[in-house]
Design goal:
Blueprint: E1 4-9, H1 16-27, E2 31-33, H2 52-57, E3 60-61, H3 74-89, E4 94-98, H4 102-110, H5 120-133, H6 135-145, H7 147-152, H8 158-171, E5 190-196, H9 199-215, H10 218-223, H11 240-246, H12 252-275, E6 280-284, H13 289-297, H14 300-303
Length: 306
């Protein structure tokens, strides 16, 4: 039979890892992470990595593979992910990719978009604006110039905001117009499974996960990373809010509420991104595993081999 790539997507806290492990056991294969924060060895609690028990039950790739001080970009991720997939396909009929980072998922399926060249002076100007005035002003610019990107990208990641702005301003075309993933043919036989639920339920699941992170020692984890606060890898939800608490900018209760709020906003952007992909087969988070397996087994590459 043709090799089949099973891709599992959805918002944070929806249960993607648990589903991936069930499917990996059923199809006797391994899992490749497409989560842009779980690469880092030093970030554990705040990135909601699979538990030790989960990692021991099924082999995972691209988790704990780099350090927060390493320079790692999406081109390197594309190369690493595809190398892992190709290696799995040498001995297995299935491989599973799981993650909530839409850009990383798309990079595996469609490759990296070709972007116009940007003048260094424009990048320096936007970086200076960020350092002097913060992200809010850049958010306003992006919302005005490219509302589609504003809804889709991780607004908490200043590098991605600046990247979208520099391409938009330089080319005089929206950054989103260069992301034509739906027009490109995937490089694999793939079936995409999406998990979701109603907003109220999702918010409750997110809030519960944040509370569990605090109980598991998120504050202590962040304390150990204070000297690395300047690194971009730590400018992320769950860490930057606790840094604010540790620097007496707010109390712990407010920091926790900010993590919940920022995570809910991030989940909304994840859903917006994935909903634009019409190839995703959506299931409620309270799925029956046999229904998902039936959906996967209906893929033409499997049907042709039976």
């Amino acid at each position: 039979m043709s090799k089949l790539l099973i891709v599992i997507v959805g918002p944070t806290a929806i249960g993607k890892t648990a589903l991936a492990i069930k499917l990996a056991k059923h199809y006797k294969t391994e899992i490749i992470s497409a989560d842009s924060r779980q690469f880092y060895k030093e970030l554990n609690i705040g990135t909601a990595k699979p538990s030790n028990k989960q990692l021991q039950s099924i082999r995972h790739h691209l988790i704990d593979n780099i350090s927060i001080s390493d320079n790692y970009n999406i081109s390197q991720f594309e190369s690493d992910a595809k190398e892992n997939i190709d290696n799995l396909f040498k001995t297995k009929d299935y491989a599973i990719v799981v993650g909530g980072s839409g850009l990383y998922i798309n990079t595996i399926l469609y490759g990296i978009d070709k972007m116009p060249k940007v003048d260094d002076s424009l990048r320096e100007k936007l970086n200076s604006e960020y350092l002097n005035n913060g992200l809010r002003n850049l958010h306003d610019k992006l919302k005005k110039l490219d509302p589609i990107s504003y809804e889709k990208i991780d607004l908490d990641n200043h590098r991605r905001v600046i990247r979208a702005l520099e391409v938009t301003i330089s080319s005089k075309k929206p950054y989103s117009s260069f992301l034509k993933d739906s027009d490109r043919k995937p490089g694999y036989n793939e079936v995409i499974i999406g998990l979701n639920t109603d907003r109220t339920r999702l918010h409750s699941m997110i809030n519960k996960r944040v509370e569990e992170m605090i109980e598991c020692g998120l504050v202590e984890e962040v304390k150990k990373l204070r000297k690395f606060k300047h690194l971009n890898s730590l400018n992320t939800i769950g860490y930057k809010e606790i840094f604010d608490y540790l620097e007496d900018k707010m109390n712990l209760e407010q920091a926790i509420e900010n993590i919940k709020t920022n995570t809910r906003r991030y989940a909304k952007r994840q859903i917006t991104w994935f909903k634009s992909n019409k190839m995703i087969n959506w299931f409620d988070y309270e799925y029956k595993i046999e229904n998902i397996i039936n959906q996967i087994d209906k893929h033409p590459s499997i049907q042709q081999s039976t």
